[in-house]
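TEACHING EXERCISE
Course module: macromolecular assemblies
Task: Read the component lines below, then compare them to the predicted structure of the full complex.
Student: A.B.
Group: 4
Components provided:
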Amino acid sequence: MASLAIGADLGGTNARAAVVDRATGDVRTVHRERLDERSPEAVAEVVARVVLNAPNLGWRDVAFGPMVAQALGVPVRIVNDLSAAAWGERQLGAAKGVDEAALVFVGSGVGSGLIVGGQLHDGARGVAGELGHTKVRPMRGGPPRLCGCGQRGCLEAYAGGSKLAERVREELLAGAASCIPELVQGDLEQVTASVVDRAAAVGDVYARELWDEVGDLLGTAIANLITLLNPARVILGGGVILGCPELEKLVRLAYAERVSRSAMEGVELVPAALGEDAGVVGAALLD
Amino acid sequence: MASLAIGADLGGTNARAAVVDRATGDVRTVHRERLDERSPEAVAEVVARVVLNAPNLGWRDVAFGPMVAQALGVPVRIVNDLSAAAWGERQLGAAKGVDEAALVFVGSGVGSGLIVGGQLHDGARGVAGELGHTKVRPMRGGPPRLCGCGQRGCLEAYAGGSKLAERVREELLAGAASCIPELVQGDLEQVTASVVDRAAAVGDVYARELWDEVGDLLGTAIANLITLLNPARVILGGGVILGCPELEKLVRLAYAERVSRSAMEGVELVPAALGEDAGVVGAALLD
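Instructor-supplied answer key:
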């Protein structure tokens, strides 16, 4: 049992944990539980419960949470979720064995995780990889959009699924002509990036113009990351890319036009392999 | 003599070489020679001559060029000039002892060198750091400017000293109103970034508008690099930043507005310490 490690991921909605055998890379179990209350105490308890219920550990009713809290001898490392996911993909997924790689994730938020020289690069203060908060300027101009972080003009304010859905709802309510309301039977709360993608696929002008903008911004951001870091592989993850084929086409077109010729040589853009478990698996495998 | 190493830098105009004692970090000598002819043979000869004339080596009339070419036993490593410069600043200059650092250079061209985890990061194919060829979009819009690399919209096409001077000449010849022609006594061949900076300092509207654009683009590029990589120190080098105080102010303003709050914490922007010798000194100190 000595080589087992636990990775835990505390998201906005769920806590998730994986138990991984560090020696073999074998993922013993992955558990998920809703985070209904968000105080530190409540979250600690949920993590403890997630671990408690891991059947493959053979643990029952072990007070693991307090044990971690009290026992300073237990190694605990805190990393950004996408850094952990990048490390998971590097160790067991789409970048297995690749020493220069990046994970670009476009889901409800936007971010990245960077593998440099075979190591996770988390920066001087552990906050490297915040691709979603690099600043962008859309083709159509206009005032920079407000991001959840409080700044304006962040990539996430344009391309993150939450902000995207919020924007589409606002623009439709303000009278934009589109087939999107029809696709959601008039319930604008059901608008997601994937719905916009279906509208774009049938030629909806509003959706296509929005996708041109978002595809350009995402493709340029990926191109610039590659031009700067010269990775051998870039892993694309998250529903706004993997669940939106029309958008992904535009992202790849913009990327190919904008990346420097020298950094483009030999780089591959591939889909993530581990899905939502990448983070907890990666966290368990980190040194 | 066993710990002496030679770094050579082949620029567009000059060849430069340094002899450095790797054990002590002592820079024994730095030599420079014009590159009048640019064939590989001619350049190899100039490098050999530069080394030949290094007095502190005590070498005279040694056929070193052919010796390097023939003797495969001699370790030779080729790196990008700004990567070498970043390593020089990391080992002996403005980022001495700093494990997470970047050099951003704005001279006739624009580029960067990246130090990650205390190592030079040169990427999967040795072309990392090409900040000058990341793509940007200026506030004022307009068609993306053509870069020397053949692509459009590169940062270097807006902020590199050569392209900048070329643009100013074109716009003045096309009738832009400015005091710049006066500052160069009507000889537009004398236009440089530093002249534009003097015009901006006295409130010239053309120069100020140009500087607003260039300062915004450079400041945003530096902010985005920092947001992505989370370095502890960023070294600014090159005449277009270090010789242009008005522009530098605008770069720092745009940077401070755009960088993510978490990556901004604890990062310092400092001027380069080694000047034009950073590259050859760094090259000599590379493993």
